[in-house]
Amino acid sequence: MLKPNTNYASLKDSYLFYNISQKINSHLEKNPNAHLLRLGIGDVSMPLPAAVIKALHQAVDDQAAKQTFHGYMHECGAPFLRDIIAAHYQKRGVDINADEVFVSSGASDELGDILDLFDKSDTALIMEPAYPAYVDANIMAGRKIIHLPAGKENGFLPSPAKEAKADIIYICSPGNPTGAVFTRKQLKQWVDFANENGSVILFDAAYEAFIEEKELPRSIFEIEGAKTCAIEICSLSKTAGFTGTRLGYTVIPKELSCSGMNFNRMWVRNRTTKTNGVSYIIQKGAAAVFTDEGQAQIKENINVYKQNAKVLMQALDKLGIWYCGGKNAPYVWMKVPDYFDSWSFFDYLLNEAGIVGTPGAGFGNCGEGYFRLSSFGSTEDTKTAAVQMVRLLKQS
User: Fold this and answer.
1) Range 71-74 contact pairs with CB under 8 angstroms and sequence separation of 24 or more
2) Domains plus CATH for the chain?
3) What confidence tens digit (pLDDT) does each residue in 291-302 have?
4) Whether the predicted pLDDT of 14 surpasses 70
């Protein structure tokens, strides 16, 4: 008799962003001419860099001629892209080889797929507040989850503790939703902890390009000892505007092994079984990101978002509201006024000013009382939202 995966019954009834969408739709039904100031879901608003567009066009033309046509791509990624990504790491002083780089259709996909490497009996440690998919993917797999709370007292950057012992450790830096960034010293503590306990760190580096302080690490592999305990998952979505184009990459060092099993070789086997590779056209566009021209152009776009973040931080400074993130991340994580909870604050901003943010409660219990503002909106809307927020909260 067929048995469904009953772990799905343990998931929350609806996803955070689905709830937000429903509230927005209801608001627009009542106010059809309303212009919403969208500082919620982290989609980008700047177009793809010119170097990427040029490469995409060239790749399309390649597919029109027999001599340059490409069919199935290598399941682990085209050599030209794996080479240029490895070289990108090496320029930053991180010794990564091309065959340790795996090209994917995006970090979100990879964060779910990568769990194939682990037994269902392995426990997962998730620092909260956290990106909801970390929790949901492990619930679907029937895996035990250990929730490590973080808060204002530690800047939403928890340290290893006895209760944090687990087989799989999720670390996101810069953090989503908090925008908080681990220092080298803090990451070294987690790397040592993982090596001592035989754990594997899943390091989500989707926002590493937003780090501007040179002393802050952009890769887990900048930390001594990380190659024997970590997997790094990256994305071009926020780095280069690939949210609708879809490409990411994962780094699995050859040194990472457990119980006689090598994770790099396991992932080669997984990818060659479960995928047919990422489109040649998209991989050619991605390769352009790592050229000197591409790097200069993505920095221009990122600077627009970073300026948006400054506008939001300045507004919160005027109001005397505590927050973290913003400087080295695209998200500003603010404390909501005491007379609101996360969802009532969402409703207040939406109904009174047309501002859409993300309630902290949607990222776990530790997110209650906080609110995420995204800097990925347009410059004009961000400035308007900042003015409106100051006006609203000064009078309330």
Assistant:
1) 72/276, 72/277, 73/276, 73/277, 73/278, 73/279, 73/280, 73/283, 74/277
2) 9-48+294-395 (3.90.1150.10), 50-291 (3.40.640.10)
3) 999 999 999 999
4) no
